[in-house]
Amino acid sequence: MMHRRVMVKVPASTANLGPGFDTLGMALSLYTWIEMSVSSDGITSFDLYGDGMEGIPTDKSNLIYTVAQQVFEAAGVQVPELHVAMYSDIPLTRGLGSSASAIVAALVAANALIGSPLSEDKLFQMASELEGHPDNVSASLFGGIVVAAWDGQRAEKVRIEPHADLDVLVAIPSFQLATEKARNALPTQITMKDAVFNVASSSLLVAAFASGNLELIRFAMRDRLHQPYRAALIPGMAEILEQATGRGALGVALSGAGPTLLTLVDRNSPRKAELESFLIHTLKDHGIHAETMWLKPCVHGPEITVSEGQQAQSFMERIKGEVRA
Ligand SMILES: Nc1ncnc2c1ncn2[C@@H]1O[C@H](COP(=O)(O)OP(=O)(O)O)[C@@H](O)[C@H]1O
Ligand SMILES: N[C@@H](CCOP(=O)(O)O)C(=O)O
């Protein structure tokens, strides 16, 4: 273990997919990489690469470090000093599951570093508990579309293979919105009518994904549990939710807790450019600058590479062919 290095590549995720609040997730082709090894000089250190890592702690309060220590504790081993290198293409605090991908990366890397004593299910349970909801972590851990339920004690999931024709277009506003803030915007009670609406929509959406019925997505991807309350935090969101399916999207939703807006698109659609322009201009009309990205559902979970001894190439040299920018 002393000279072992574990490289893990973990996908981003979009949670809720509209009506499936805290339940539905889909992995996306946007990634975080971390490399973990036992520190050779007995001091914990971090190399954080790329834009957007400002403010991420480089001491033992770092999320990757604290999650790794929970793995070691659960396995009954002690690895107090680590070296962690990290790079992420997933913008932080935008509703694309950056925290979940970091948690999953830390769990998987730490477990591999000590010879994988913890089962995948144990890592899933720990991830759900750490994130507080299972939707993002299950997508990052298992890939594809995942239906996950967590009762505070135990998480269960079923994975669905995404339809090959599904493309994903996201519009990522330039401002950040912490998940905690967007959760605090939600009411403590909702009407029976709205609850029934969401049970129906979410169930139909899962059935549409499972049966490959892309035409149903538009009708099923509607929500009354969280999106109406979060719309006040994201200028232009209400208009986009209302009009995107008329502009070429199969379905539209707030991605996770936002502020990113997500559309599902048939990859053969002739209206892709129209949709992209509609998203950008609607947000711009509301004073919001946004970056769009065309993504695919990511069909697999973490990719793990374990190596022993020194590496001739640096961390960034090894991943540079795969990063987005
Ligand atoms: N790679 C990372 N390493 C350490 N902390 C991270 C990492 N990625 C995300 N985080 C933490 O997660 C927070 C964002 O989580 P959250 O508000 O749930 O938004 P989202 O998960 O949608 O990006 C960041 O502010 C940071 O504290
Ligand atoms: N179900 C959660 C999902 C939060 O996702 P994130 O990517 O914004 O962290 C919620 O809607 O609060």
Give an overview of the whole structure.
The protein folds into 2 domains: 4-161 and 298-319, 2-Layer Sandwich (Ribosomal Protein S5, domain 2), CATH 3.30.230; 166-295, GHMP kinase, C-terminal domain (Alpha-Beta Plaits, 2-Layer Sandwich), CATH 3.30.70. The strands form 2 sheets. Strands 1, 2, 3, 4, 5, 6 and 11 form a 7-stranded mixed beta sheet that branches. A 4-stranded antiparallel beta sheet has the order 8-9-7-10. It is an alpha+beta fold and 325 residues long. β5 (145-150) and β6 (155-160) form a beta hairpin. It is globular. Helix content is 34%, strand content 25%. The site of ligand LJ64HWYM has 17 residues, from α4 and α5.
Structure characteristics:
Ribosomal Protein S5, domain 2, Alpha-Beta Plaits, 2 domains, four-stranded antiparallel sheet, globular
Brief synopsis:
Its main location: cytoplasm. This protein is an alpha+beta fold and 325 residues long.
Oligomeric grouping of the chains: single chain
What structural category do the secondary elements indicate?
alpha+beta
Number of strands: 11
How many structural domains in the coordinates? Answer: 2
Tally of individual helices? 11
Please tell me what the overall shape is.
Answer: globular
SSE order in H/E notation? EEEHEHHHEEEHHHHHEEHEEH
Q: In percent, how helical is the residue content?
A: 25-40%
What is the class of the largest domain in the CATH system? Alpha Beta
Spans of at least 5 consecutive residues whose pLDDT stays below 50 are none
CATH topology label of the largest domain? Ribosomal Protein S5, domain 2
Q: Judging by the overall fold, what is the CATH architecture of the largest domain? A: 2-Layer Sandwich
Bound molecules: adenosine-5'-diphosphate, the ligand N[C@@H](CCOP(=O)(O)O)C(=O)O
Mean pLDDT: 96
Into which percentage range does the β-strand content fall? 15-25%
Radius of gyration: 20 Å
Task: Report the end-to-end length measured between terminal Cα atoms.
Answer: 33 Å
Biggest β-sheet description: 7 strands, mixed
Domain GHMP kinase C-terminal: 206-273
Binding site for ATP: 91-101
Family: Belongs to the GHMP kinase family. Homoserine kinase subfamily.
GO biological process, one term: threonine biosynthetic process
